[in-house]
Amino acid sequence: MASSDLKSAALMDQMRIHFTTDAGKALTKKIGLVYQINLAPKKIGFNEEIYVVDLKKGEVTKGPFEGGKPDATFSFTDEDFFKIATGKMNPQIAFMRYKFAATFTVMVYDIKYCFLKCWIFCAQG
After folding, report:
1. Domain annotation covers residue 2
2. Which of the two residues, 112 and 68, has the higher pLDDT score?
3. How many domains does the chain have?
4. What's the CA dihedral at 15, 107, 47, 77 to 10 degrees?
């Protein structure tokens, strides 16, 4: 992937490498959703770098999703995503404190299921 000044970019690269392992392939089969993660240096919505974590194909790419719409889109600041991904911030607390934004393209009754799968992904990824 292209170079980046964001701390979280290194995590995305590690995730990409993880998907080539047996554990990563098992995770891909277990989740089966596509997430777009928008990472902003300071404020959500400004100068974001976009990553797609495709858990159907088992790959991480930089740039917006090109196969239609992702199942879920999450927007974080770089610092907050890094804290969540490294276990220094609880994702549920972060959500309740509006530390990130989430949108879903699945039916309303599937949102809880999509969110649950995302937490499984965050905990194991």
Report:
1. no
2. 68
3. 1
4. -60
Kindly tell me if the per-residue pLDDT of 109 is higher than 60: no
Q: What is the CA radius of gyration of the chain?
A: 13
Q: 66 versus 115: which is more confidently predicted?
A: 66
User: Does the residue 64 lie in any domain?
Assistant: yes
The residue segments making up the domain with residue 27 are 7-124
Stated pTM of the model: 0.80
Does 1 map to a domain?
Answer: no
Sign of the torsion formed by the C-alpha atoms of 89, 115, 53 and 15: positive
> Do the domain assignments include residue 91?
yes
Residue 49 is classified by DSSP as: E
Instruction: Report how far residue 102's alpha carbon sits from residue 83's, in angstroms, rounded to the nearest whole number.
Output: 17
Alpha helices by DSSP H, listed for 4-73, are 7-18, 22-31
Measured CA angle at 37 (ends 102, 10), to 5 deg? 140
Measured distance CA(89)–CA(69) in Å, rounded? 28
Q: Which helix (H) or strand (E) holds 91?
A: helix 91-96
User: What local confidence, expressed as pLDDT, does residue 32 receive?
Assistant: 80
